[in-house]
Amino acid sequence: MTPLHLELRTPSGLVLDQPVQAITAEDRSGWFGIRPGRADVIAVLPPGLLVFRDADGEGFVALAGGLLSLEAGRCRVVSLEAVVARELDAIAEQVAQQARRRRERAALHQGVVRDLAREALRRLLQERP
């Protein structure tokens, strides 16, 4: 039987790359399980949780949606954002921290865009005859 391997990537890079015993994920039709020997599958994952079990026990991944591909025992998951934790309480706090960082980055970007627009307007007004 082919062993199961989980690989999780975000635009920031590789988040998780390890052998696992089982994976539970959710797509539009509901929850499904992946164990060694399962037939290949591709699934679109909504924002939510992916649960895996490895030698250390259960682990949780909060995903901002993504794509799951299982081929020959290698499960690849890609997502824009992902947070990995061993306990649900810890994952909730990490997701909250990530949301705060995202809001701070958005506010910073908005400030930069406002400054650029202000500077462009100032230059246009200076060039008028």
Explain this structure to me?
Strands 1, 2, 3, 4, 5, 6, 7 and 8 form an 8-stranded mixed β-sheet that branches. Helices cover 31% and strands 50% of the residues. It starts with a strand and ends with a helix. The longest helix has 40 residues, at 88-127. It has 2 domains: 1-86, ATP Synthase, domain 1 (Sandwich), CATH 2.60.15; 87-129. The chain is an alpha+beta fold and 129 residues long.
Portion of residues in beta strands equals over 45%
Helix run count: 1
H/E element order: EEEEEEEEH
Architecture (CATH level 2) name of the largest domain:
Sandwich
Structural class comes to alpha+beta
Specify Rg, calculated over alpha carbons: 21 Å
Number of strands: 8
Gap between N and C termini: 79 Å
CATH topology of the largest domain: ATP Synthase, domain 1
How many distinct folded domains? Answer: 2
The CATH class designation of the largest domain is Mainly Beta
Largest sheet, strands/sense/barrel: 8 strands, mixed
List low-confidence stretches.
Answer: none
Mean pLDDT: 88
CATH level-four homologous superfamily name of the largest domain: F0F1 ATP synthase delta/epsilon subunit, N-terminal
Shape: elongated
Give the helix level as a range of percent: 25-40%
